[in-house]
Design a protein that fits this description.
By secondary structure, the chain is of the alpha+beta class. The protein has two domains: 172 residues, putative nitroreductase (tm1586), domain 2 (NADH Oxidase, 3-Layer(aba) Sandwich), CATH 3.40.109; 130 residues, 3-Layer(aba) Sandwich (NADH Oxidase). It has ten helices and nine strands. The protein has a six-stranded mixed β-sheet with strand order 1-8-9-7-6-5. A three-stranded antiparallel β-sheet has the order 2-3-4. α5 crosses α10 and α9 packs antiparallel against α10. It binds flavin mononucleotide. Flavin mononucleotide (FMN) binds next to α7 and α10.
């Protein structure tokens, strides 16, 4: 354990012994290799650093007032470590075994459905544990249909509030990572589900709308042709290189562990694997933008960015890069900024 007062913020990347070796490997290739070898992004082990609260600093011209504490203020070290490992394990699962989800796993997920940090405000999950497969439809007939899912979580957002999409992405991905860490398969579904059948299975308060779903269950040992075709169509096993999605400070000036955190965001799931997130590394933190700059409040890109925000923050906590997300002032075409503590 490192005492909190020894951590005066992220260290320059040059202090990282293996930094040069790691940097020389193309980031996409390194993640594929890591997945194949089941190696974690960081070799340093989990630090207890993130436990301390962040202190407000002078805000930059882009930042608005919304300020949250680090995720480590709300979640246990063990859970954050499990989620960080789950980032490497997670992949979309569309075919399930016909057996129910263990009760303890359902309880663990249930405990998170109302959110696990203030960033989840305006989002909520609803658990469906019977005949969940009936909620899903295919793209063309049965093609791409989720099969045999014993359970599902329906994600809803308070749609008249700004940032509800980011909140749904952030909360939903927490549930996805929790499920992954419990040995369950998941798959974000925003298109191929029946809205009517879903609404008939949950109680939605006025002002809330269903945004997306995930099935929950144990992955089938048999991959169907449809699953393979969908993965190939979306190129699900690859991601844009960091050089395409990250701008700002050159790599030698990145804090130690930041590359791993950006890779965690890079490997987040997104609708059609479009990866609409872009990052700018500044001296005081990392700004997150959508690829097209400004996007409307209902945009699916905001949902994808909310998912990437959670991956990035979980990996930052694991690397000891304490900080918190802040939202920009109105009119600034930025999704959020992760400001170092
Ligand atoms: C917001 C969102 C919506 C998605 N909607 C669908 C969907 O309707 N049907 C589907 O089969 N997959 C859907 N996906 C899964 C993506 O295709 C998948 O995450 C992406 O191809 C990356 O693959 P991976 O999750 O295996 O890493 C969705 C993913 C996200 C994040």
């Amino acid at each position: 354990m490192v005492p909190p007062n020894t951590r005066a913020g992220p260290q320059p990347a040059g202090d990282e012994p293996q930094a040069d070796a790691v940097r020389s490997v193309d980031s996409t290739l390194s993640v594929i290799l890591r997945r194949a070898l089941k190696e974690p992004r960081m070799s340093s082990g989990y630090s207890s650093h993130g436990r301390s609260c962040t202190t407000p600093h002078i805000r930059s011209a882009e930042e608005g007032g919304a300020l949250t504490n680090s995720l480590a203020t709300y979640l246990s070290e063990a859970r954050l470590k499990a989620w960080n490992d789950a980032i490497d394990e997670r992949h979309s699962v569309r075919s399930y075994q016909k057996r129910p989800v263990r009760e303890e796993a359902l309880q663990s997920i249930e405990g998170l459905l109302r959110g696990f940090s203030p960033l989840c405000r305006h989002a909520r999950g609803h658990l469906v544990v019977q005949n969940a497969s009936r909620l899903f439809t295919g793209f063309l007939g049965p093609f791409g249909k989720i099969s045999n899912a014993p359970a599902a979580v329906v994600f809803a957002g308070e749609f008249h509030l700004p940032r509800y999409m980011e909140a749904v992405g952030y909360l939903g991905e927490g549930i996805v990572l929790e499920a992954t860490s419990l040995g369950l398969g998941t798959c974000w579904i925003a298109g191929s589900f029946s809205r009517d059948r879903t609404l008939a299975r949950i109680r939605l308060d006025p002002g809330w709308k269903v945004v997306a779903l995930t099935p929950l269950g144990y992955e089938s040992r048999h991959t169907t042709l449809g699953d393979m075709a969908l993965k190939a169509l979306a190129k699900s096993d690859s991601r844009k290189p960091l050089s395409e999605i990250v701008t700002g400070l050159p790599r030698p000036r990145w804090p130690r562990g930041l590359k791993g955190a950006l890779e965690a965001a890079q490997w987040a799931p997104s609708a059609r694997n479009a990866q609409p997130w872009r990052f700018r590394v500044d001296r005081d933190g990392v700004a997150l933008m959508a690829d097209t700059g400004d996007v409307n409040l209902n945009s699916m890109k905001r949902l994808d960015c909310g998912i990437a925000m959670l991956h990035f923050e979980v990996a930052c906590c694991a690397a000891g890069i304490t900080g918190s997300w802040r939202f920009p002032k109105p009119g600034i075409p930025m999704i959020a900024k992760y400001r170092y503590a």
